[in-house]
Amino acid sequence: MAVQINPSILSADFSRLAEEAKAVEGADWLHVDVMDNHFVPNLTLGVPIVESLSRATDTPLDCHLMIEDPDRWAPQYVEAGAGSVTFHAEAAAAPVRLAREIRSKGARASMALKPATPIEPYEDLLPELDMLLVMTVEPGFGGQAFLDIMLPKIRRTRELISKHGLELWLQVDGGVSEATIERCAEAGADVFVAGSAVYGAEDPAAAVRMLREKATGVTASAAWACAH
Fold first, then answer.
1. What is the 3-state secondary structure (H, E, C) of the chain?
2. With 90 as the cut, is the pLDDT of residue 213 above it?
3. Catalytic-role residue among 36, 62, 130, 173
4. Is 33 noted as a catalytic residue in this protein?
5. pTM of the prediction?
C-alpha cells in the first residue's frame, strides 16, 4: 500500500499560495484546511480560494472541511476543483447521503473524527467512504503537538478496515513530523498530512521526500500492511 504525503497549506504563506503549492509539487495531494470560526475557533479560506488553487497547481486538492453544515457546502468544494473532500462526522447531518453526493460529483469522499470521537459507531459507514481521517490534534489550529493517545484509535480503525476488506485510505492530521510519522505508519495510517514539518523546512520538497521515506520504511514491515 503506497504511502501518501499531503502538505497542509495552513502552514504556508497565504500571500503567495500559488508559489507555495509549486514548492511541494512532489507531494501526492495538497491539503486545504477550511475553517468557519463556528465548528472550530478559527477562520481560514473558502470556495473562491480553492477554485484559484485548483487552477494554480497540478497537485490534486484534499479539502478538509472543519465547518458546520457540510451537507450544504461540501458539494461546492467538489465543483471548485477538490479531488477529495473530507467532512466531519460530528457536523454532518446525513453522512452516507453526503458521501454519496461527493462521490457522484467525481471526488473522493472522506470523513474525519475529532480526537474524542470513537470510530466504532461508524463501522457500518466505512464502505461508503474512500478515506477516513483520524485527527491527531484538536482541529482548528496548525502547529499543535501530536497526541500519542490517538495511536490505539488508528490501530482500531485499521483493524476495522481490514476486517471488512476495504480499500480505504487512513489519514492522520495533526503534529505529523519526522519525529511522529513512523509511529502513525506502524499503527496503520497510510496518508499523512504535514503542515509545519513541510512548510517550516528550508526545502519543503525535500521535507516531503524525507517524510515519505520514513513512513514507507515502516509500512514495508508493519504487521497491518503485511496482512493486507
1. CCCEEEEEHHHCCHHHHHHHHHCCCCCCCEEEEEEECCCCCCECCCHHHHHHHHHHCCCCEEEEEECCCHHHHHHHHHHCCCCEEEEECCCCCCHHHHHHHHHHCCCEEEEEECCCCCCHHHHHHHHHCCEEEEECCCCCCCCCCCCHHHHHHHHHHHHHHHHCCCCCEEEEECCCCCCCHHHHHHHCCCEEEECHHHHCCCCHHHHHHHHHHHHHHHHCCCHHHHHC
2. yes
3. 173
4. yes
5. 0.96
